[in-house]
Design brief:
This protein has about 140 residues and is mostly beta strands. It is about 10% helix and about 45% strand. It has one helix at about 5-20, and strands at about 20-25, 30, 40, 50, 55-60, 70-80, 80-85, 90-95, 100-105, 105-110, 115-120, 125, 130-140. A hairpin with a 2-residue loop joins strand 9 (about 100-105) and strand 10 (about 105-110). This is Ethanolamine utilization protein EutQ.
Length: about 140
């Protein structure tokens, strides 16, 4: 019995599409629909230390291939402060703790459930008197360049 090339192609396409639907790794759980829609379980995201900033860790949750225009990730700031100049626009959704954004001697404070917008070219200090965990959304996506 032989299997047609069309049948093999159909089986391979189904396997490939199914493998793209759910991505679970040591970092976090991400579900990707074939349409490109993504769903990330934020509580599964394990952040990694951010170079040059003690008490700060983060993890991008979308790649440039998945979202070439907007970036997103999870950041934690643990009883610390660090200086940063944004070369992009950023929204921060505070998941837990207290996030403070210091700019020009003033402090904007956000608590769990709050959203903070930081415009491009702002020179700030990210800080927290406790341990803040927040989701960040940036435009453009390639914030590290």
């Amino acid at each position: 019995m032989s299997i047609s090339e069309a049948t093999i192609r159909e089986i391979v396409e189904k396997v490939v599409k199914q493998s793209l639907i759910t991505r679970e790794n040591a970092d976090f759980k991400k579900v990707k629909d074939p349409s490109g829609i993504l769903s990330v379980s934020c509580d599964t995201v394990q952040t990694e230390p951010f170079k040059g900033a003690q008490g700060v860790s983060l993890k991008d949750i979308v790649s440039l291939e998945e979202s070439p225009r907007m970036g997103a990730g999870i950041m934690e700031v643990d009883h610390t402060s660090f200086e940063w100049t944004l070369t992009y626009d950023e929204f921060d959704y505070i998941i837990e703790g207290t996030l403070e954004i210091e700019i020009d001697g003033r402090v904007v404070t956000g608590h769990a459930g709050d959203i903070i917008f930081i415009p491009k070219n702002s020179h700030i200090h990210f800080q927290s008197p406790d341990k803040a965990r927040f989701a960040y959304f940036v435009y453009p996506a390639d914030w590290q360049s």
